[in-house]
Design a protein that fits this description.
- The complex is a heterodimer of chains A (336) and B (195).
- Chain A is α/β, with parallel strands linked by helices.
- Helices cover 31% and strands 21% of the residues of chain A.
- Chain A has 12 helices and 17 strands.
- Chain A is globular.
- The mean pLDDT of chain A is 91.
- Helices cover 9% and strands 32% of the residues of chain B.
- Chain B has 1 helix and 9 strands; from the N terminus they run E-E-E-E-E-E-E-E-E-H.
- Chain B has one helix at residues 175-192; strands at residues 4-5, 15-16, 23-26, 29-32, 87-102, 106-113, 122-127, 144-154, 159-167.
- Chain B is elongated and about 70 Å long.
- The chains are: A alpha/beta (336), B mainly beta (195).
- At the A-B interface, helix 5, helix 6, helix 12 and strand 14 of A face strand 5, strand 6, strand 7 and helix 1 of B.
Chain lengths: 336, 195
Amino acid sequence: MVVDSCLNRKTSEPAALEYLRLLNVDIANKVKMVVATHWHDDHIHGLAKVLDAAKNARFVDSAAFKRSLLSRVVEYGSQTGANASVTEEYSNIHRILRDRIQKGEKKESVGPMQAIANARLLYLSDSSRTVKAEVIALSPSNGTLNHSDAELENALKLFKERKRPSRQGPNQLCVVLWVKVGALQTILGADLEHVSGVTEGWNAIVRSNERPEGAAAIFKVPHHGSKNAHSDACWKELLAGDPIAVVTPYAPSRLPTANDMKRLCEHTKELYLTSDYRHYKASHRDHTVEKMLRRREKKLRPLEGSMGHVRMRADARDENAKPTIELFEGAERKCA
Amino acid sequence: MITLPLNSESVMDQMVTPQSGNVLMARSVLRISAPDTSDENYLVSSPWIDEGSTDGPNKNVHRDIQLDLDPKPVVRPLALDISKQNFRVKALQRWTGHVERVMADSFIAIVSDLTNPSNPDEEVELDIEDVPLGDRALITMGSVFYWSMVYRDTKSGQREKSESIRFARQPRLTEDVVEEIYHEADAITAILESA
């Protein structure tokens, strides 16, 4: 399964494809599902290419988006160049799915499958497997489904004005995943934010009577560790004690902040950060350009660094197995 | 041969001398006859005046300079080398960006390096004073702009560095075009939602 995508800037290739090729994974046959948790550009770059390579994967996105409105928004955006990186990506995804269906592949296999809270998205239990694997969506909740039209209509309005939607928009529509492989349980928190209402966000997940049982030992911290996405109930009810938690940074908003890191360390000692935006190196340019920038007192702050990577491996048959953690390209352990 | 500056806020301040042909001025109308240069890119942001052309005694091709009806945004990337002109422009650095936040005298933007695409996106604070008067109304959250730094080499051998920020303008899509886009989108949706 591949969840979201980003590009390796050096190669312009999706990081997931590069990684799977490095491991000699047969992407066309072994990748069963490609998930777009939401359509923000830091989560979707390169996903069409991933889907194109994963020829037998089902595509999943959020049930919060009305497909007819989403299609209009992405087609308008991609054909007029508005916020092209996102809309073009999604338009390409739609076209890949359309082409597969038109070639005779079954829609149940191709997708798009729309994830909604407590829907099982994947279940692998055939006799050739040593462990069963299951993926269940924990969001979006029913309570969220009413909000998506407003977000899409606002995006369309901005595209018509040739503007980009703000990155600060709400993230209530995204897909949070519960992944169970053998005895190992993981929550991938996407960018879901915490709201006070009980029918949305993390409250809706915690309060759900239909969510999977048990506690996850591994947690992808939502929304780059921001306090907007923090839910004490999530840490208490959904996660095991001292879970392995991974945070990915978002430099434009300087997330996670120092306070975010301090707060997260109060909940787990096993916190990992894929890269620290405070250490990003400035870009290299022609020295004449650098002089002009200095003379005009223009400082450019890089928003990306190396492709940090946290890898966890465990024997999924063993309930007590503790994953081994490996860190690459600037990923760090925090809180130790 | 007469060279004339083009003094308009929305037209780049250039001296243009065609290689051959005549340049005539009648009142406020500028008619240029010049070899066909339709394969060159020009940085313009207002239409040239279209004048009917007649053959001149030297039999140069009179080129109708058309109104810019291209539906794409009016601001185009800078031409790298307009060798037939009286100056040479060398692009040093180009970015495209969008506005994240607007303050009293400046705005914060995220820019993508067009000259070195492997460079990461960057955040920068730019001064509103650096934006041409005609574009300042376009500085709002989400607005897209082009930022470039160039060398300008004149025929007389002078070189100057120059920087410009220009905001993209929304091409007016006709209702028919929008309907066509929606129609295509709806066709895709119908297939994706088919049983």
